[in-house]
Structures are given as C-alpha cells and as structure tokens.
Amino acid sequence: MSTAYIWEINAKNSPLLKKKCNHCDSNRFQCSDKFRLNAQKKNIDIWLIYRCIQCNNRYNLALFSRIRTESISKDLFQKMSENNSEAAWQYAFSHEIRRKNNVEADLDSVEYNIVHEEISVNEMLHLPSETLTFKINYPFDFHLRMSAVIRRCLNLSLRQLEQLIDNNAVSVNGRPLQKKHKIKNGDMIMINRQSLIVILSKENH
C-alpha cells in the first residue's frame, strides 16, 4: 500500500531557439505563439512564427509542407487558424519538429514552477504506507532532471538525495533512480518512507 501525491511541473514560457539573426547580432529567437498558413489549391504550408529577441526579425519554423488540407484534423486546423497558444507550445517544445528544421532549443531558457503538497516529517511518521508515491504531470518536456525536482519538492540537499539513492530508497517506474534521469510525463517516483524520515530527521538534529 502506498500514499500517492501529484507533482505538477508547469512551464512558464516556451524555449528560445538558438539561431543567428541575419539582421542583428542576436542568436536567440522567441516563439510568438502565432502560426502562418499558406494555402495553394488543395495543399497547405504551415509554420510557427518566431521573432528575434532583439530586433523582432521573423523566422518561420516549418510544421507542415505541401500537405492536403484534409490531412489535418479540423480541430487542429481551427486552433492554428486562431493562433491557439497551447497548440503553439506543443510544437515549440517538440524535439522532432526542431530536428526536422535543423535548429536547437535553449532549454535552459524555460522557467517553471512545481505545484506540490508540502509533507512534514511528522505527517510522514503517521502515514500508514511504507512507500511514498509521487506522480509527475509534465505536459511540456524540456529535459528537466528528476533529481532536481525531488530535491526541490522534498527540500533535500544533494547529499541527502545521494544517501537515498545509495540506500536504493528511490525508484522511478519500478527502477532505481539514476542521477541523470530526465523526467517524462507520467513518471512514478516511489520513495521508502522510513529511509526518508531517517535522513530528514538527521538533518534536523
């Protein structure tokens, strides 16, 4: 039996693109959350518009090229036509789209917050389960390390987290946590409750 908590990681902005501007000396472009659609007969080209962070010069990130309009769902087409920001972010965070356009993202430019419930040592002492389970909601992937999120949400020092890892007290999706593990949406973290209490109690004494 385990007690489950939700950790929701929300990006505050989409990643900048690492791209040299041909109008100024900037090398970063920001997503405008706007699409450009160009229909020719029964085919359509669609781009996501980026702007230079210094001079506002435009760069079009190709999403669809010469495809039949009926190949795109009506819902997605409508969102693009209305410059839906959520749809824009789905593409702005897409590694595959960047790969096809041969551009790189500055993932360190993404700021984020984590919505999570604080759990005190006293509360942990009275939980009925041997394991604490945390489910990750992470809709936009920007290569965040699991170790950074665990430390932030549980207020752990690097040394404390390393102790948990050395004691095999932390697992992700049923496997021991690796220090370089990158988060995926839906990841399940399981931490041995007693091991966590011991480590947190040592720090408080």
From TrEMBL:
Residues 144-204 form the RNA-binding S4 domain. SMART domains: S4. Keywords: RNA-binding. It comes from the Bacteria. SUPFAM superfamilies: Alpha-L RNA-binding motif (SSF55174). InterPro entries: DUF1062, S4_RNA-bd, S4_RNA-bd_sf. CDD domains: S4. This is DUF1062 domain-containing protein. It comes from Chryseobacterium kwangjuense.
